Amino acid sequence: MPEEQSHSEAGQVERAKRLRDRIDRLKQAEPES
Amino acid sequence: MSALTANVALVSDTSIIDFSQVSIVAAALNKQVARDFGPLWQVDATVSAFERLESVPVDYWPVIIRDDINEPGAAGYHTDDNGQPFSLVQADDGWTLTSSHEVLEMLADPFGNRTIAGSPPPDSPRPVSDFDRVIYLVEVCDPPEADQFAYTVNGVKVSDFITAHYYDPNGTMGARYSFRGNIKAPHTVLEGGYVSFGNPVDNNWYQIIVVNGQTKVRDLGVIQSTSGRSLRELVDFAVRKSRKKEHYRFKPAMTKARAAAAGSPLAKTSAARAKTLRNYVVKLRQRDVA
């Protein structure tokens, strides 16, 4: 099923990108003093 | 036991910890879940290693090891933009123990909102001792989280955890409150551990911590609204805020050599077995054995 596999990989890459963006935001989210 | 299997992905996003170490630790965590944790918590789950975050199937819950998430406090449990759980683990000396902690807590309460009511922890200082009833956040590795209560699976250091009996209203002869048996009564905390709970009267949250044999209260303040974030994330954020000056959870990233040692503790015995198996394969090819 090459089409399904390709679609799945695209989803994985996009999810990884969103997770990395989220991690960057978390790293900047300093608790208020 | 749930009809759905939970799948956890262990993945390194740092060059300090390579895929071979992640594979060894994921195998140990998978065994811990299948043998120790799953039967006690009625959880059906797998833990698998992946080489890159981009290789993780979209329905796996990632536990991501990084070397840059120490401060101001990105390490720990989070939910993504779709409300799905993921955890961040700092690549420090205790990364296998922390990975185990995050995996087990994710499996016991994937969405970070599970609470169970009960009497406050015994021997708590005031004001907690005055409360009739509190709501505990289900975090299964916190009460016995200290290094001294850890154990090994395949030689990999993993976290101890509480059982469901931890939330029983009363102690019972012969009941098991933690996997290794060090916790002797419901709602109690071991040295170096903690438990988080709220007072339902005003929704003020607290932690009981045990340091050098002393039971102390940490006041986390009132949680007004979860605003789409899980209770676990909000409690963790409140802890970081209250401990900001202590550089809470700060540990430097480890060296590559030390990471290799932590992630492959049984390298000698595994190498010896591999040698034996290869020799056997050679003999089989020569039809030298039955």
Largest sheet of chain A: none
Mean pLDDT metric of chain B: 90
Number of helices of chain B: 5
Strand content of chain B: 15-25%
Overall number of structural domains of chain B: 1
| Rough outline of chain A | rod-shaped
Task: Please give the radius of gyration of chain A in angstroms.
Answer: 15 Å
Strand content of chain A is: under 5%
Distance between the termini of chain A: 54 Å
What overall geometry of chain B do the principal axes of the alpha carbons give? globular
How many angstroms does the end-to-end distance of chain B come to?
43 Å
Could you characterize what this model shows?
- The complex is a heterodimer of chains A (33) and B (290).
- Chain A has 33 residues and is an all-alpha fold.
- In chain A, 82% of the residues lie in helices and 0% in strands.
- Chain A contains one helix and no strands.
- The relative contact order of chain A is 0.11.
- The model of chain A has no long low-confidence stretch (mean pLDDT 77).
- Chain B is of the alpha/beta class and 290 residues long.
- Chain B has one domain.
- Chain B is built from five helices and twelve strands.
- Chain B has a five-stranded mixed sheet.
- In chain B, a hairpin with a 4-residue loop joins strand 10 and strand 11.
- In chain B, helix 1 packs parallel to helix 2.
- Chain B is globular, with a radius of gyration of 21 Å.
- The model of chain B has no long low-confidence stretch (mean pLDDT 90).
- Chains A and B meet through helix 1 of A and strand 3 and helix 3 of B.
